[in-house]
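Before relying on records like the one below, remember that each one covers exactly one chain. Contacts with other chains, cofactors or solvent are not represented anywhere in the record.
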Amino acid sequence: MRNLYLIALAVAMACASGGSSSGLPARAPVDRNVITQADLESVGSTNLYELIEKVRPNFLRSRGQSSFNSSGVEYPTVYVDGRPYGDLASLKSLITSQVSEVRYYDAPAAAAKFGTINAPGVIDVHIKQ
């Protein structure tokens, strides 16, 4: 009977250990503000606008006007390698296979990194070198 208790205790401890039972490493958390190289390669799109529309459509949504932004712009601005590139329509001219990463900055982060004129947010595209 004692052996039965020891076996039950061992099974309970093994189940509660929290380890991966499949033997696979745990996945790293996904940053919802980044489209990685793997994402870019896994989705069939000819231009970056179409890809973002499929993978992270929230990047393309209006954030509304803010008091920081007197220009009346309510959509994110597109930057390529840290330099101003255009509005959302300019994403259609970027070929997906030439892009290494896309990062979205929300209003506070965009204002801090790129200036308050970018209050609706910034989509920062990094081109392969």
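The chain has a mean pLDDT of 81.
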